[in-house]
Amino acid sequence: MSEDDLIGHLSALQLADSAFPSGRYTLSYGLETAAENRQLTAEMLTGLLSDTVRLAVAPSDGVALACAHRAVGADGSVDGDLVRRADERLTAVKLAREAREASTRTGRALLRTASGIAARQPIRDYAARVDDGRAPGNHAVVLGLVSAVLGVPRLTAVAGDLYAFCAGWVAAAVRLGAIDHRIAQRVLHDVRGVTARAAQLSVDGDVTRIASCSPFLDVMSMRHEQAELRLFAS
After folding, report:
1. Which residue blocks in the chain are alpha helix, DSSP H?
2. pLDDT tens-digit profile of 113-162?
């Protein structure tokens, strides 16, 4: 592995780290409402997470991330139309308002942080588009741009984001008292194969393939909006 490859790998780890200040730790992905309704058990977590990655996160955020990454040329040029279409399509397939707002909120936070640590032209240009309201700024799309600029390979970037989702998902389940840390690690271990296959299927997708199907968690997210007391923002 060359030094550049290793640097790209380290960048992927940094972007997927739960300590990265994008605000993703504030998301329960619908699990808070499920826990409150006693519809969340340790036994169902692996299956539910596998289905969510395979049918919702990978074909929506994963494909959108891959499109944004592909839009950045080797010379630093950016296919702005491809990025915009991926961003708008991703917003359209997020049915729950909280999910849409969480995606753009964390995307803007990622843009602010990335602009401070890697002030490259593609990042600055897209930050300006988002600030002006010309683009939604979904987290996955921003992450695709930032990953490409930092030299993270496209498949690595998609797999890293899917892993970050899984890690955040089980961390939310721990904070909700549904599982402990050991079970969380077992769930992460059990979904590795599904996550890897989902990343491989998403990496070459185009904008028309951005889709999502997670009716249970979508309904839970919609009900979360009306909750009087919340541990999570969404």
Report:
1. 3-16, 31-36, 42-52, 63-70, 80-93, 97-117, 121-131, 139-149, 154-175, 181-190, 192-202, 215-224
2. 988 887 788 888 999 999 999 999 999 999 999 999 999 999 999 999 99
Tokens 């998403």 correspond to 202
Give the closest residue to 218 by CA, choosing from 65, 25, 33: 33
Q: Find out whether 106 and 141 touch, Cβ atoms under 8 Å.
A: no
26: three-class secondary structure by DSSP = helix
10 Å CB burial of residue 111 (0-12, 13-18, 19+) is buried
Q: What is the CA radius of gyration of the chain?
A: 17
Which single residue is written with the structure tokens 């309704």?
A: 37
Q: Which two tokens stand for residue 231?
A: 């541990």
Going by the DSSP 8-state scheme, the letter that residue 72 receives in this structure is B
DSSP 207: G
Task: Write out the two tokens for 220.
Answer: 């839970």
* Cα distance between residue 232 and residue 48, in whole Å: 19
C-beta of residue 110 within 8 angstroms of C-beta of residue 76? no
Q: Which of 8, 22, 25 is nearest to 115 (CA)?
A: 22
User: With the C-alpha atoms ordered 99, 113, 76, 161, is the resulting torsion angle positive or negative?
Assistant: negative
